[in-house]
Amino acid sequence: SIAAYPMEAPASQALLDRALAVTPGGVNSPVRAFRAVGGTPRFMVSGHGPYLRDADGREYVDLVCSWGPMILGHAHPAVLEAVTTAAGRGFSFGTPSENEVALAEEIVARVEPVEQVRLVSSGTEATMSAIRLARGFTGRSVIVKFAGCYHGHVDSLLAAAGSGVATFALPDSAGVPKEMAAETIVLPYNDLAALEAAFAERGQEIAAVITEASPGNMGVVPPAPGFTEGLRRVTTEHGALLVSDEVMTGFRCSAAGWYGLEGPYAAGAPDLFTFGKVMGGGFPAAAFGGRADVMAMLAPLGPVYQAGTLSGNPVATAAGLATLQHCTPEVYDRLTTVADTLTAALGDELGKAGVPHVIQRAGSMFSVFFREGAVVNYDDAKDQHVPAFAAFFHSMLSQGVHLPPSAFEAWFLSAAHDDAAVDRVLAALPAAASEAAAA
Ligand code: PMP
């Protein structure tokens, strides 16, 4: 049966009122505030498998999955057991411990070009450290990024960023010194000519190009055939490093992330990779890694400093390891099947309702843009009818389906999305499509 939840959510609203008194905007990460879609953000109390339950006791099929980490669904029994066992042995030692070795081994075994990794606690730390390392290794300072790609809230990577920055239509962030922003060149995604021109002009100054392996932070915008290959070719020609940010795609698009689907590239592999989300299983664990000669520049071996009190935390690494160990071929097959079913039904219903739309996919990650025609870069992504998304979102929410509260985010699936959960989403689509048509 389809849920019919009212727009008002009194228990969540009461929590929001308390939160607003002590936290800016009432949230600890901006997109959670529902600013782009309006209404009361739902305060969740529990999650099991494909479902979340909010403070008002309403149940939702979760298509956010904590923005990616919960690939096995919420409170997966094997991960819960690993976490409980690890926590029973102590929470943090501030020394090396075995779980972090095992997690590093698992990552190195999966992603062929990654010879060594350093564990950190968030995707932001991973990209921040990777670009510092690239600068230290090359002795250069300029970083190239692509508009609409989000790499965390690193000062020099906040220029024309996706995710929350896109959701709120912010050009950039206040508080980033202009000297810092001047060290970042922002180029349109999927435009090799623009890349070649930038390297022709400033090639000797460029330390690295950082790219989302397959962007998901302006909605899903996969690389055009040959684009990533071109990034590798041009960076190699100019002695710059290529950093592939797989925080979102890593261990989600395949066992070896996006690289597992698209690599190896004829022009060679990326030098550095960043990971997060899935590899932490819902706990704060992330990583950067790659070529051993580059990684050897890191302290304590080399002059590039990087550290963390909680880096390699035994509970977080236990969660990440258990999650990766349960990411079997069957898990990836299930994600593909569910993505096939949902994208087909979404396209059908929006089509029937006469809503202009395009659905784009990278492995099991997908999103819908409310416009006609393929989206290849950030300008295209912004050129959509955002009010249609808001109407669609609220209709889905009232029918018990939890989507990302922004038109610029990927939808995430888990292997726990069984047929019953998928059927609930399917049942909600027709009404949501007609709301989008009316917006
Ligand atoms: N890189 C990418 C591609 C991401 O999607 C994100 C987060 N959505 C980050 C980096 C930053 O990760 P975190 O939020 O863990 O700092």
TrEMBL record:
One of its GO terms (biological process) is protoporphyrinogen IX biosynthetic process. Pathway: Porphyrin-containing compound metabolism; protoporphyrin-IX biosynthesis; 5-aminolevulinate from L-glutamyl-tRNA(Glu): step 2/2. PROSITE patterns: AA_TRANSFER_CLASS_3. The keyword Isomerase applies. Signal peptide: none annotated. It is found in: Cytoplasm. Keywords: Cytoplasm, Isomerase, Porphyrin biosynthesis, Pyridoxal phosphate. Its cofactor is pyridoxal 5'-phosphate. CDD domains: OAT_like. HAMAP family: HemL_aminotrans_3. NCBIfam families: hemL (TIGR00713), PRK00062.1 (NF000818). Homodimer. This is Glutamate-1-semialdehyde 2,1-aminomutase. It comes from Pedococcus cremeus. The lineage of its organism: Bacteria, Bacillati, Actinomycetota, Actinomycetes, Micrococcales. The gene is hemL.
